Amino acid sequence: MTSIDVQELTKEYGTTRAVDRLTFSVRPGRVTGFLGPNGAGKSTTMRLVLGLDRPTSGTATLGGRPYATLDEPLREVGALLDAQAAHGSRTARDHLLVLAAAGRIPVRRVDEVLEQAGIAAVARRRVRTFSLGMRQRLGIAAALLGDPAVVMLDEPSNGLDPEGIIWIRELMRGLAREGRTVLVSSHLMNETATFADHLVVLGRGRLLADTPMRDFIEAHSERRVRIRTTDPARLRALLAARGHEAVAAGDGRWRVGGARAEDIGALAAAHGVPLLELADEQASLEQAYLALTADDTEFAATADNARQEA
Amino acid sequence: MSTTAVLRSEWIKVRSVRASAGSLLAVFFTTVAINVLASAAVGQAEADNEGADLLFGAFYAFNFGQIAAIAFGATAVSSEYLGGALRVSLAAVPDRNLLYAAKMTVVGGLAVTAGLLTSFVTFLSGQAFMGRYALGLGDPGVLRACVGGGLYLALMALFAAGLTVVLRSAAATLSLLIPFLLIVSFVVGDVAGSVADFLPDRAGQQVLRQHPAGTLGAWTGLAVTAAWAAALLLAGWWALRRRDA
Question: Where is the ABC transporter domain (chain A) (predicted)?
Answer without folding.
Answer: 4-229
